[in-house]
Amino acid sequence: MKNVEHIGIAVKELAAAEKLFSTLFNAAPYKRETVESEHVSTSFFQINQTKIELLEATNEESAIAKFIEKKGEGFHHIAFEVGDIHSEMQRLQDEGFTLLNAEPKIGADNKLVCFLHPKGTSGILVELCQEIR
């Protein structure tokens, strides 16, 4: 793993959260995107080397909608940049981690992504990210 790629925050209303975080960071989001396969709309902020991803469910079947229903708004996941997502997935699986998807998926911000089950990571949802070249 290279570094923390971003921190994901689940929100009920993306527009309201963008306004709040724009005020907090004194900066506008650099990108807004919908990921149809995950049923989410995202908004990204970058403060120096730190990226924050706000996630809003686009329907009730979204993992984000279910997360908010169960836990409320707030910290959802931490994402780590990797150089080769396939080899990192294999390494972590060999180490006993449970992957939530067998193959990388196309995620937001031009990334291939894979998630690790939080039961094996002290309750934290971990995302692996590789830039799509």
UniProtKB/TrEMBL annotation:
<dbReference type="GO" id="GO:0016853">
    <property type="term" value="F:isomerase activity"/>
</dbReference>
<dbReference type="InterPro" id="IPR037523">
    <property type="entry name" value="VOC_core"/>
</dbReference>
<dbReference type="InterPro" id="IPR029068">
    <property type="entry name" value="Glyas_Bleomycin-R_OHBP_Dase"/>
</dbReference>
<comment type="similarity">
    <text>Belongs to the methylmalonyl-CoA epimerase family.</text>
</comment>
<feature type="domain" description="VOC">
    <location>
        <begin position="3"/>
        <end position="131"/>
    </location>
</feature>
<dbReference type="InterPro" id="IPR051785">
    <property type="entry name" value="MMCE/EMCE_epimerase"/>
</dbReference>
<protein>
    <submittedName>
        <fullName>Ethylmalonyl-CoA/methylmalonyl-CoA epimerase</fullName>
        <ecNumber>5.1.99.-</ecNumber>
    </submittedName>
</protein>
<dbReference type="Pfam" id="PF13669">
    <property type="entry name" value="Glyoxalase_4"/>
</dbReference>
<keyword id="KW-0413">Isomerase</keyword>
<dbReference type="InterPro" id="IPR017515">
    <property type="entry name" value="MeMalonyl-CoA_epimerase"/>
</dbReference>
<keyword id="KW-0479">Metal-binding</keyword>
